[in-house]
Amino acid sequence: MNNDVVALPAPPEVLQIEVGLLQNFCEILYCPDTGEAAVVDPAWEVDRLLREAEKLRVRINKVLVTHTHHDHIEGVGELVAATGAEVFVHPNEAAVFDGPTTAVADRQNIAIGRRGLRALATFGHTVGGTCFIADGYIVTGDVLFVGGCGRTDFPGGNTAALWASLQRLAALPEEIRVYPGHNYGPTPTSTMGRELLENPYLRCQTFDDFRQLRERKRKP
Ligand SMILES: [Zn+2]
Ligand SMILES: [Zn+2]
After folding, report:
1. How confident is the model at residue 138 (pLDDT cuts 50, 70, 90)?
2. 33 CA to middle of ligand 2, Å?
3. Is 196 helix (H, G, I), strand (E, B) or coil?
4. How many domains, in total, are found in the chain?
């Protein structure tokens, strides 16, 4: 059994919201029993995220950071000021924040009310990139997009590390739904099974093929 998915807690409900000017996706993950919620990557339109949480009748008390590029964290301060939420981020990137943060480790479970998910350290796009996997879906930040993957030519990018991260995701069950960090593909979400068939970066058979493809295409 794949240790990344073994004994996952019951999954939070998920609301995907497209925000901002760069087709970013933000997710509200919540427990319908307790009304506790986490927001992934609040960077844009924090007032709208707060309204969506209100509509769901949930209380945001956690922020989960996939990585610290500005288009994923610009709204963290504002959201924390409004909610008092605890910010979860990998220690490799925590220095970006002025306020207190909570370190996430690889395969650490994070509770959201009576539901929960698990952090997966998936570096390569950045030095502390983290995916969050629940029973049935995964939030992939800029590691994996529908039909694409993250760039490795920003500071801290590492093509070999991204390849290793994508190989790890490729080993997940095929029915796992993928919630990417941007709306760059033909559909807002996908499944690992579909990505294995259609995503050119996951179809690469060797690291060399992957490196050449990744370095040929600078976008996204
Ligand atoms: Zn990024
Ligand atoms: Zn991004």
Report:
1. very high
2. 32
3. helix
4. 1
Q: pTM to 2 decimals?
A: 0.97
**For the CA of 67, the nearest ligand:** 1
Give percent of the chain above pLDDT 70.
99
For residue 182, report the distance from its CA to the centre of ligand 2, in Å.
6
Closest ligand (CA of 71): 2
Structural domain contains residue 112 = yes
List the CATH number of the domain containing 188.
3.60.15.10
Distance CA 107, CA 168 (A): 12
Measured from the alpha carbon of residue 69, the closest ligand is 1
CA of 125 to the centre of ligand 1 (A): 7
Residues with CB under 5 A from ligand 2 (ion): 71, 142
Residue 165 domain flag: yes
Kindly write down the DSSP assignment for every residue of 159-194, as one continuous string. HHHHHHHHHHHHTS-TTPEEEESB--SSSS-EEHHH
